[in-house]
Amino acid sequence: MSGDNFAVIKKELQSVHDIIRNQLIIKAGHVGQYAHLEFCPTDNFIRPALVLTVARLYNCMSPKVISLGAIVQFIFMASQIHARIPETADNNRDPRDGTQFPVLVGDYLFGKFFTTLCDNGIVHYLRPLAEIIGRLNEGGILSKTNPNAITENESLFEEIVKLEVAELMAGSARLAGDLAGAPEEDKSLLHEFGLSLGMVYGLTQRNFGHQQIQKYFDRAMQALKGLPNRLEKDLLEKLIHSLRTPDGFSIRKVV
């Protein structure tokens, strides 16, 4: 699937990445010198696009929505940097492959999530986002302590994917709906859609069983049925369809 289908949010998506790009320059240079910031095209796109598309579903596109798109991406980037940190440092390796610099960069990005909340008057989302960060870290601990879960404990593996991938997408969809004024019932559906979307993506990327992926795909489609019948609903449906193959989505790298 091509990102051309999401041309309606192209301008706003670029604004999100402009916010992020501007924060990657510090006095010591570009933070990419000190931690790996290479992500696949889908990871550069999917979380901000989910926020923007959901907000548009309820006729809302404001600076706060743009900021929320950047915030969830800051959280994703920081969590990924921390997850990649090796258990022990090798002083002869690239500093980005060490321990100290990536920790500092990850903490810096987590800090940017908080200041962006404050700067844009949406600090009331601090608690739900902080809870999501806690779940991300819990998933990381489970993943490191159960490296063979994918073959030895499938239910635990699904829980790890839920914590590491799906919870942030669920929160992104729900908070975008809340910011856009969606009814409470719709916010519950958006949370279910985001959670199922994240499970489809996470399980597909890890080459997990088709039956489990289909289960979450069906849940996502069921959640969509209750949402307003607008163009953005069709885009969300196209998005979930595109994620059923590991390389099913392509869009230009913008970070």
TrEMBL record:
PANTHER family: ALL TRANS-POLYPRENYL-DIPHOSPHATE SYNTHASE PDSS1 (PTHR12001:SF69), GERANYLGERANYL PYROPHOSPHATE SYNTHASE (PTHR12001)
Keyword terms of this UniProt record: Magnesium, Metal-binding, Transferase
Origin: domain of life: Bacteria
Protein name: Polyprenyl synthetase
One GO BP: isoprenoid biosynthetic process
Keyword presence, Magnesium: yes
Keyword rRNA-binding annotated: no
Cofactors, names only: Mg(2+)
Pfam families: polyprenyl_synt
Similarity-based family: Belongs to the FPP/GGPP synthase family.
Gene3D superfamilies per the UniProt record, alphabetical: Farnesyl Diphosphate Synthase
GO MF annotations in UniProt: metal ion binding; prenyltransferase activity
